[in-house]
Write a structure and sequence with these properties.
Layout: E1 6-12, E2 25-31, E3 37-43, E4 51-57, E5 60-66, E6 71-77, E7 79-83, E8 88-92, E9 96-99, E10 102-109, E11 117-123, H1 128-131, E12 136-138, H2 144-159, H3 167-211, H4 218-225, H5 229-240, H6 244-261, H7 269-275, H8 281-292, H9 296-310
Antiparallel strand pairs: 1-3, 2-5, 3-4, 4-11, 5-10, 6-9, 6-11, 7-8, 7-10, 9-12
Length: 311
Amino acid sequence: MPNSSVVTERYTEANVGHGPALYPSVQDYSFDRGRGHFVHNVIEPRENGHKIVFLSSSGHSGTYAENDRPVISLPQAGRAEVNLDNERLSVGVGEMSLIKPCQRYSRMIVDPSSGTYESYLVFLPKTWSRRFPKTTVVSSVDHRLPHLSSLIKFAMASLSQSDAVSDRTALLFEALIEDALLLILAAEATTGRTSHLVSVAKDAVAYIEAHYAEPLSVASVADAVGVSIRTLQKAMKSQTGKTMRSQLSQTRLLAMRRSLESGMAGNSVTSAALEAGLFHFGRASQAYRKQFCEAPSETLRRANSGREGQD
């Protein structure tokens, strides 16, 4: 049994070569000022397949390729700037990035006060590529991030002790870190889905308000906002508390009431209903009474009385 489960490697401009062997492929590796240092401590994968790294650098950049494993990054000092094919990420202290398997150019920018860049990296198992296929940045508003950083720091310290470290202890730390990651990523996925539903509901309501006089259907509104019928219904229910049909009906009834209250000459209950896209007059009158506690004819009579008084 090895005395330590943590492997430490140190590099300077004299021995860095093509770059530290953290990734399968490293190209164009260089220190920011032509010279510097790079140190990383590595907990090699155990049963669950997580490779955990702490790195400290005087500032460096390079092109890295990881074709199989998503990589988590948690900066502890300084900032990482990452260029992907169609995206640029900037990740600082109190944030976390999840980068899917790909090639990327990264620059590690030092903290001005300490002169170093420090970060934890977690190379996830290959199977995580299917579970979390997107590149994600989790912001500091997630209170779980400091907990995850502290847990990795504690694991590094514990597994670096000179006394023999059991496989059981290493596996326990790996399981705890995986659980903490899953909680963060599950919360981020939920937030992303909620934001999408908010956007869908907002677009659907705006479309209904602009086209309520037309013969709209659930399918036509879903097509207009670019989502499936199921997603539209879920978004409307979760964000407005109404079905799409209920939202459309309420919008049309409000439009009918505005028309009746306008007091325009020649206005009638029938014309107001038709202008609002309500073609079933009996059903529209019943819904109107239920919504506004008066018949459409009463609203019209009151508006006409007011107009005649002004005349």
